[in-house]
Amino acid sequence: MSLLDGIDLDHLELTEIEIPLRWPFETSFGRTTRRRILLARLVDRDGACGFGECTASEDPFYNHETTDTAWVIIVKYIGPMLAAARVQSAAQIGPALDRIRGNRMAKAAVEAAAWDLEARVNNLPLWRLLGGTRTQIDCGVSIGLQETPELLLEKVDKEIASGYQRIKIKIKPGRDIELVKAIRARYPSILLSVDANSAYTLADTGLFKAMDDYKLLMIEQPLAPGDLVDHAKLQREIQTPICLDESILTLADTRHALELGSCRIINIKLGRVGGHAEARRIHDYALRQGIPVWCGGMLEAGIGRAHNIAMSTLAGFTLPGDVSASERYWEHDIIEPPVTVSRNGVINLPSGPGIGFGIDENRIDQLKIRREEIRIGN
Ligand code: OSB
Ligand code: MG
pLDDT, tens digit, for every residue of 8-66? Predict the structure, then answer.
């Protein structure tokens, strides 16, 4: 029996903003200099609001979704299906949208907004509504490919000096083990990991065996997203734990990966798995299996960042995530105050209702490219 008040939806407001990154971010699949981000605001019949952020990228290179595809899927399918379903809680959003295959980032933007709304109407912090137990979360950083190894070392110095608890670097063929060697020479014992974003194949097994000498915390997504069998083969050949990111879209994927032995750690991204409900199912399953999870990032603005912070309070998030301070990305974030990280590399959870950060409506208006309202109530 739930003692929570339900949600009574009136409309959904979609806004696209365009916001420049302070520094370009480069991965094996490309370079990002500015983000085009969809924001979802769900409004109930009393005018209360919940906020979500779509983590789809501008281009279909990390996965198949983009800012533009998410816009179309939300306007053409998610809005009308929610209008027909008359959902009364955030937990009912997933089932109401189940007929839409894939497009999980589009769904998650709206689902997350519903969780924020449900938390606010019940005057609860979102992290408490989700069942979180931590009052602070451990932070790491993801550092993109740099022009030179020297520039990469400078970035690492800066993040270690700021207190971040784990450094992850992006790698791609030809720019991999030399970078690891250089960082290990300067920092023999920091928590260090690499993320390949699927840029390798089993033909590179020798390279990953050689990485075993550098005591990495994990190797993230070395092979293609669908290659659970090949990840299992690679994991059998190396000592360093493999962590899957792109491969894990659902609870079923998680079970398959663990049954096959494709990884020993899981990166959970709210958008990639379709929202808080599925993220929590994956978390719960991994916790029962003794598999550590951590929260990945997608260069989010403040609303997405705030949702990641709330999710990271669940008990199984035992490794530092890619959730870091707003100032690493934005001159001026869309939430107030911006996300800050303490000198010992933690984020303290806000105590206010919902995501617990104020929404900077003026900033959003400044950055706005387009806006559309979709009726949900009748
Ligand atoms: O693979 O984790 C990834 C950014 C965009 C797409 C994929 C990934 C990333 C990051 C950045 O690593 C994490 C962040 O700082 O938000
Ligand atoms: Mg990754």
Answer: 999 999 999 999 999 999 999 999 999 999 999 999 999 999 999 999 999 999 999 99
**Annotated catalytic, 215?**
no
Ligand 1, atom 12, residue with closest C-alpha: 142
Look at residues 303, 304, 321 and name the one whose alpha carbon lies nearest to residue 312.
Answer: 321
Peptide bond preceding 60 in cis form (omega within 30 of 0)? no
Nearest ligand for residue 222 CA: 2
Nearest protein CA to atom 13 of ligand 1, as residue: 297
Whole-number CA gyration radius for the chain: 20
308 lines ligand 1 (CB under 6 A): no
One-letter amino acid identity for 169? I
Which amino acid is located at 178 in the chain?
E
What protein residues have CB closer than 5 angstroms to ion ligand 2? Answer: 195, 220, 245
Residues in the chain, overall count: 378
Q: Is 297 in the pocket of ligand 1 (CB under 6 A)?
A: yes
pLDDT of residue 173: 98
Is residue 76 part of the annotated active site? The answer reads no
| Range 21-60 burial, b when 16+ CB lie within 10 A, else e | beeebbbbbeebeebbbbbbbbbbeeebebbbbbbbbbee
Helix residue ranges, H only, the chain:
67-73, 79-85, 93-96, 104-121, 126-130, 149-162, 177-186, 205-211, 228-237, 251-260, 276-289, 302-311, 361-367
The atom number, within ligand 1, closest to the CA of 141 reads: 15
**118 Cβ neighbours under 8 A, 6+ residues apart:** 4, 5, 6, 7, 50, 89, 90, 129
- Closest-lying ligand to the alpha carbon of 298? 1
Strands 191-195 and 218-220, by their bridges, are parallel
Catalytic residue among 107, 158, 168, 170: 170
Q: Considering the entire predicted model, what is its pTM?
A: 0.98
- In the reported structure, the alpha carbon of residue 245 is separated from the centroid of ligand 2 by a whole-number distance in angstroms of 5
pLDDT at 1 over 70: no
Q: How far apart are CA 207 and CA 178, in angstroms?
A: 11
